[in-house]
Amino acid sequence: MIVFTYGMHKSASTFCNRIVAQIMKQSGAFDKVIAEGDVSRVSRGMLATFNDVILDSRKVVVHKTHGGITNYAKELAAKGVAVATATFRDPREIVLSMLDVSEKAKGTHRRTTITRIASLTEALDRLEVEIDRFQGWAECKFVLPVFYDDISFDTVRTILKISAHLKVHCDPERVAAAFQDKKDIRFNKGIRARYETEMSVDDQQRVLDRFKAFYQSFIEPRLAASSIAGAA
Prior knowledge:
The chain is α/β, with parallel strands linked by helices.
């Protein structure tokens, strides 16, 4: 079996990947859980070394990717040997996080697609790619979309949703406890709705206007649900 954990950059994708691996380990349903790092694209060649694991119901590979969905991933899901999660976040917050990363990388050798982003315009252009990839994953029935605010600030309840999607049982409190210190998770500031105090109204509107359809389909429903859950 394989679990793909796709994530938009700066959307708690690493955290979700680690949570999925921990759920699988603690479920007791598998003899072996292999947690793999970032891969650019899900392909037959990339997964060739895991063929025996993918086809073994007692073994599981948890693979993180920022790449778009591929026909091969869909084929594995159609065969019943793959499921996936896809993390997403308010683009306003991703912009701020991208610019944080770029600032921290100055003067270092960490020059990647994300660390080279130096302006709002560049961040918005990159987000076009991120959102297109996310929507490609999210439209598939075998994929569970996971909102940044949910996994970061309502972790236990989100673990329950993920475990239900994976069709395994676990103690969500125990899974969450494994990440209490979050030493190996890059959270940057980890503050909800940073844009309210760190982004001008005009810049916020630029983001909202450019990704209006994405906000209507994914962000606004989750923000509303989070508000209701918080009130309850």
